Q: What sequence folds into this?
């Protein structure tokens, strides 16, 4: 990039690779959920074990998202991104050689380290590569890869591959694309010319980030949204097969609605927030999720209806994840500390929503029955409505409109 002309070619190459990379994060992370019914038989796992396997990855992801976001602001993006994508791809393959619960938990916790390091760094790299007027769109595009690959395509890929290979080979096969993508990133991704920003990041610390009101509010709100995403992603396959008695193939199709709905929502809800504001979009997202999940509880073994309702619920809840960890966190960040801010917000959401909540859901399923797990995300997103009321508006168009209105009241003439 030069001072006179924006390097659009590099922008699209970088954003495409980073979107594919985050898509593979989603694929490697969520491939395990539709494989759990088969794995439970071979490894003698319980519903509580399933929740713990999802939760331990979320915990380590959250811790390292918070840590590595700040580190990448200081040392650069490449030194974090490329080792991280190679590591989580290899570890995903190693999930297929687990001999029991202990080894599976160990592999998944290490995957969380690598994926948590990749997450905020990749968001910041996308922001670095993007022209300011396309930054929101590009961040939505990159994050939507997680929903498309991880939550839409992974249930279909997993359940169809189970027809021809064992679950162990499924893990091995899906680790290959990440290794290829890591090589491509090595040759394409470059550091931004942002020495002043890096100097500012070197002077700052995480306490400076927390001084912005929207950061702690977004942390709590993202916990509420991620509780919806991760409890559904972890437990819904068991809910559909054990409670509604769907076969494996129909279960895979229904669960894919989480990803397809989320893929659309991660574009649409942040885009809508450009027009109506971050605060109103967040409130609407939580309210829409709550209504749809309540409706979902009353639907029986009707795959098409289940798919439609789950699609809409996921549109809202994954749209919230993109909104809170993208525009809200980015606009609240001090200069030079975008990755730090994203890492802190994502880290908190992951530790509680992606780590603790699935473990609690496993406890609920074991003690009270799998049919009751939906109450946990319903309560979380209702809480999210109240938390969203505390957000300060930062959408540029809304802030400019408010400032223009103040100026006109003060006697200024419209442009």
A:
């Amino acid at each position: 990039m030069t001072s006179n002309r924006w390097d659009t070619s590099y922008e699209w190459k970088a954003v495409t690779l980073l979107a594919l990379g985050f898509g593979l994060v989603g694929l490697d992370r969520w491939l395990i959920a539709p494989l759990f019914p088969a794995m439970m038989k071979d490894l003698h796992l319980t519903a509580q074990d399933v929740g713990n396997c999802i939760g331990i990855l979320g915990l380590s992801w959250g811790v390292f998202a918070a840590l590595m976001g700040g580190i990448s602001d200081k040392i650069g993006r490449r030194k974090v991104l490329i080792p991280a994508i190679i590591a989580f791809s290899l570890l995903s393959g190693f999930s297929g050689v687990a001999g029991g619960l202990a080894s599976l938990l160990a592999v998944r916790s290490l995957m969380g380290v690598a994926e948590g390091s990749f997450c905020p760094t990749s968001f910041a790299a996308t922001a670095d590569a993007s022209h300011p007027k396309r930054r929101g769109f590009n961040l939505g595009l990159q994050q939507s890869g997680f929903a498309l690959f991880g939550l839409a395509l992974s249930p279909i890929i997993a359940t169809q591959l189970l027809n021809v290979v064992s679950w162990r080979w499924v893990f091995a096969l899906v680790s290959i694309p990440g290794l290829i993508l890591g090589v491509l990133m090595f040759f394409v991704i470059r550091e931004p010319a942002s020495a002043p920003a890096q100097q500012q990041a070197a002077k700052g610390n995480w306490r400076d980030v927390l001084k912005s009101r929207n950061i702690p509010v977004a942390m709590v709100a993202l916990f509420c949204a991620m509780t919806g995403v991760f409890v559904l992603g972890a437990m819904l396959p068991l809910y559909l097969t054990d409670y509604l008695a769907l076969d494996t193939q129909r279960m895979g199709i229904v669960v894919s609605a989480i990803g397809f709905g989320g893929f659309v929502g991660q574009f649409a809800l942040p885009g809508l927030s450009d027009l109506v504001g971050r605060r109103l979009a967040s409130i609407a997202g939580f309210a829409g999720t709550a209504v749809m999940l309540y409706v979902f509880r009353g639907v029986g073994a009707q795959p098409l209806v289940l798919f439609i309702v789950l699609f809409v619920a996921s549109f809202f809840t994954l749209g919230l994840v993109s909104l809170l960890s993208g525009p809200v966190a980015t606009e609240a960040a001090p200069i030079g500390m975008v990755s730090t801010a994203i890492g802190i917000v994502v880290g908190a959401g992951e530790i509680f929503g992606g780590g603790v909540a699935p473990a609690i859901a496993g406890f609920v399923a074991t003690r009270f029955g799998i049919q009751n797990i939906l109450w946990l995300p319903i309560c979380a997103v209702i809480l999210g409505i109240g938390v969203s009321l505390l957000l300060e508006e930062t959408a540029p168009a809304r802030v400019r409109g408010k400032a223009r209105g103040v100026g006109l009241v003060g006697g200024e003439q419209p442009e």
User: Anything to note?
Assistant: The first helix runs from residue 8 to 30.
